[in-house]
Amino acid sequence: TSAEHDLLVSALLRSHYRALPGQAQTTAHGFVPIDDGLEAISRHASSLGYDAVVLFLDELVLWLASRMSDVAFVSREGAKVVKLVEGDAQKRPAPIVSFIARQRDLRELVGDHVPGAQALTAVDILRHSEGRFDTITLEDRNLPAIAAQRLLRPRSDAARHQLDDAFALVKRQLEERGERDVLLTDTGDLDAFRRLYPFSPALVDALVALSGAMQRERTALKVMLQLLVD
């Protein structure tokens, strides 16, 4: 049966052919077709009792973008993206759900150095892949909440009290100088300032405005982290 065949192959790879996976990485033809691989993953997940397989693919778009000058590569690998959503449901007992982070529209990365006919081919393939996925738009204004959890969460109650005391001192000094409102915004009040301290709502709003040019929140968080370190 198919299950017995899979077990036999796995046993052989673990015992007599342990070098084969490493050798497969040296050639583009060393792996099974992506359809077969996804079906194997689905069957394995189903055999373990899982209802579905969820894939979070963060660097896929950047990986394709790094090879955009190689039209043959983009055409070949870009076409495989469609396989994530198009497959024989009967051969995938556990459905595969894919989330792909897209920092930029890949069609924008087909530069002028690519000849016209090849550029159109690459764009058509990317458009075909893109049309198979729904789009989830992440709001840039999520940056304050992300920063509060990933960068500014106190490590202990003592650290939280220390931050409370420091913020109270800064607040009093700003009020004495009449400068409190300079650091606030229409949507960022004193409570928001406390959650983001030592960053002000005005600074975070500026980073949100620039986040489109900084790969969304990722680079903005790096800027905030560097400010903390400095």
Topology:
Layout: H1 2-15, H2 20-24, H3 34-47, E1 53-57, H4 60-66, H5 71-81, E2 96-100, H6 116-130, H7 143-150, H8 157-177, H9 190-196, H10 201-210, H11 217-229
Parallel strand pairs: 1-2
Helix pairs in contact: 5-6
Describe what you observe in this structure:
With 230 residues, the protein is mainly alpha-helical. The chain is 54% helix and 4% strand. A two-stranded parallel ribbon has the order 1-2.
Overall mean pLDDT score?
75
How many E strands?
2
Strand order, main sheet: write it out: 1-2
**CA-atom Rg in angstroms:** 25 Å
Any key phrases for this structure?
230 residues, elongated, 2 strands
Task: Summarize this structure briefly.
With 230 residues, this protein is mainly alpha-helical.
